[in-house]
Each structure stands twice: as C-alpha cells, then as structure tokens.
Structure to design on (378 residues):
C-alpha cells in the first residue's frame, strides 16, 4: 500500500499532534507500507528531510518526506483547508490519501484517490454545523473511513449516521522498548540526579493551563508532604509562575523522548490532571498521548474519571480514578495511594500489562488492515 500523508505543520515542534503523526507514519512504514509525509513550506521555513524527522522524534521506519512550497500554512481555517485541497493533488503513485486534517472531514471528496481521515476530536458534537458535511463525506464511494483515537470520539460520528463499516477506533500507541528496562523509583531518581525526599507525584507534558494543571497545583497545596514534579517546561509561562510560590512543586524542562521514561519511572505516582476542562471546555485533549507512556512506565496512575480515559483506565485495575474538578478528593486519593503499597503494585502491574497491547506497531497493523479491507470494497 502506498500512502501520501499530508501534515499541517511546517516546523519541528513538541506538540502531541506532530509526535503522533510521525510515530504513525513510522509504524506504517515498519509494517510494510510505502508512506510519504507531505509538509507545507513557507519562505522562512527550514529545509527538512525524513532523517531530520526520525532524529527529532526518535523513531525508526523508512517513511519519506516531501516539502511543498505553498502560502497555505498553519492549523487554522481557511489556510488548513486550502493546504488540504492543494495536497490532495499531490497523490501521483499513491493509492490512499491519509490525513488527520480536520478539513478532510468536509473536503475529503476533493481527493482523486481513496482517502481516510484520522483524528481525536468528536467534531459532530463540538461543531454541529459540520454534521451534514461530515455525513456527505462519509457517503463518498472513495471515502475509506474515519479512524478515531477513542470510542468516545467515534460515538459522535455514529450518532449522526456515519456507517459503522466506515469507522475504526484505534487508540494511540507507545514505543514499548523505550520503557525497558524498567527501573525502581530510587534507581531512576539516582540516574536523573533527583534528590531524595518525600514521595513523588509526577506530571509530564505541556505546562499549559488548558491541560488542567491548576488542579495539580491545588492538590500540591493540600499535600505539602508530597513532591509534585512537573516535567515539560519550555520557558516562563503561567503555570511556571504559579508553581514558583508552592514549596513542594518542582518544574523541570521538557524531556526528550528517550529521557521521558526515566522521568516517569522516577515517580511513585503519575498524574493526569483531574480536570474536566481539557475535554469539556477546550476539547483539545481526548485520551491524551501521555496516557500511553504512563502505562508503559509501569507506575500507578491517578487520573480523572472521564469518559475518554475510562476506555483504558479502570479504577483499581490500571489506575486510581477520581472525580474531576475536586482537588480535595484527588489529594485524599493520592495520599491513600502513597500509603498503600499493595495497591500501587497492583495498579503498576495492570498498567504495564495493558501497555503491552498498545504498541504503535499493533496500531499500524490494525489501521492498515482496515484500509486494505475498505479498498477491496471501493
């Protein structure tokens, strides 16, 4: 199978969508697909090649990269839609146009070859005015289908009548090899030069208020005996300034992919902010990518009882789930976990076992199998 995979971004960055797209392309290539990423390039954008992407994201896989000079750059409409229209004309030799561009849900019919759209957003719920366009796109004979990152998102497409045979839920993945060998918290802290002290509750990801980190800071104030480590700073921002006044909160720089597992294994508890805001208010965080790295780290996870994370995280089995937007309840649950070594060991073992089923390679095989089946029916 030969796929052309246009992306919206034109510079290397640390946003999850870039990591996810390149990890997906690399896994497709490892599974035997011929994959070419297509990147827009403006006058001031650097020249890049596939090796630069592989090095930046620390992935392996023989995908290709083509940069296309264009004035249509950026994630926002209408530039993203114009770039999708332009990139859909660059399909010579490919038999599938694969994209996670939102514009493809409405404009995918412009593709001259079979196309598929991947995304994490429940767009029919978030943007009701798109529903008729999404239905029309799904009815196109050469629409292979929509690949969604969660059943939570897929359900929004089912409700507007997208045929089940054109929907695939494919949870994101993790590079399991990076997490091995798993170290004890003490070994990981020693390797990082992290001073010994009280128990460590750790968050890794973008330090943005949109991620619900206000809940973690509120928890830290309630539990001064627990060290809260936030890994992911890229400078002086709102969260960094707020954390500076809390004695038991440590802010650390962004960790490169090969260093992240060591930070995760330095924790006694890994934290997904127990906030409803990322999912309900901002809609930019559905089953966050960090969930998969957390699971592979083999550490207990504290997370909100949320409809997206509930697809993978089971309270008492793979995580401790708490009510969102209740820092007092979350802080109490965290203290309970710290004091219950048997439960921590159970959750850690459950998380590691679940991670074994969630590799990028397994995901790629699932998606490629879906595409091949759909191609036979077009």
């Amino acid at each position: 199978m030969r796929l052309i995979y246009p992306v919206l971004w034109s510079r290397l960055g640390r946003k999850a969508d870039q990591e996810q797209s390149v990890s997906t392309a690399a896994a497709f290539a490892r599974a035997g697909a011929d994959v070419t990423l297509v990147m827009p390039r403006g006058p001031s954008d650097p020249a890049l090649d596939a090796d630069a992407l592989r090095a930046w994201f620390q992935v392996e896989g023989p995908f290709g990269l083509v940069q296309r000079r264009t004035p249509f750059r950026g994630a926002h409409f209408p530039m993203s839609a114009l770039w999708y229209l332009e990139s859909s004309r660059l399909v010579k030799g490919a038999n599938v146009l694969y994209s996670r561009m939102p514009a493809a849900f409405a404009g995918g019919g412009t593709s001259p070859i079979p196309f598929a759209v991947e995304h994490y957003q429940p767009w029919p719920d978030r943007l009701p005015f798109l529903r008729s366009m999404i239905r029309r796109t799904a009815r196109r004979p050469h629409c292979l289908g929509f690949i969604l990152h969660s059943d939570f998102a897929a359900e929004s497409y089912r409700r507007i009548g997208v045929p089940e045979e054109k929907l695939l839920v494919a949870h994101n993945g993790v590079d399991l090899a990076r997490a091995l060998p798993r170290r004890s918290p003490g070994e990981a802290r020693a390797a990082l030069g992290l001073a010994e002290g009280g128990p460590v509750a750790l968050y890794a990801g973008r330090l943005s208020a949109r991620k619900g980190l206000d809940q973690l800071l509120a928890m830290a104030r309630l539990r001064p005996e627990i060290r809260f480590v936030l890994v992911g700073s890229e400078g002086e921002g709102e969260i960094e300034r707020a954390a500076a006044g809390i004695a038991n909160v440590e802010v650390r720089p962004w960790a490169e992919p090969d260093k992240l597992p060591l930070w995760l294994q330095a924790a006694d508890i890994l934290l997904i902010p127990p906030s409803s805001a990322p999912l309900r208010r901002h809609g930019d965080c559905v089953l966050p990518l960090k969930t998969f790295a957390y699971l592979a780290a083999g550490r207990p996870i504290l997370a909100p009882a949320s409809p997206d994370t509930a697809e993978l995280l089971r309270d008492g089995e793979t995580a401790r789930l708490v009510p969102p937007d209740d820092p007092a309840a979350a802080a109490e649950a965290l203290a309970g976990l710290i004091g219950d070594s048997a439960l921590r060991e159970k959750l850690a073992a459950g998380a590691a076992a679940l991670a074994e089923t969630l590799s990028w390679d397994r995901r790629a095989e699932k998606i490629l199998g879906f595409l091949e089946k759909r191609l036979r029916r077009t």
About this structure: Residues 2-173+359-377 form a domain with the Rossmann fold fold (CATH 3.40.50.2000). The chain has a mean pLDDT of 94.
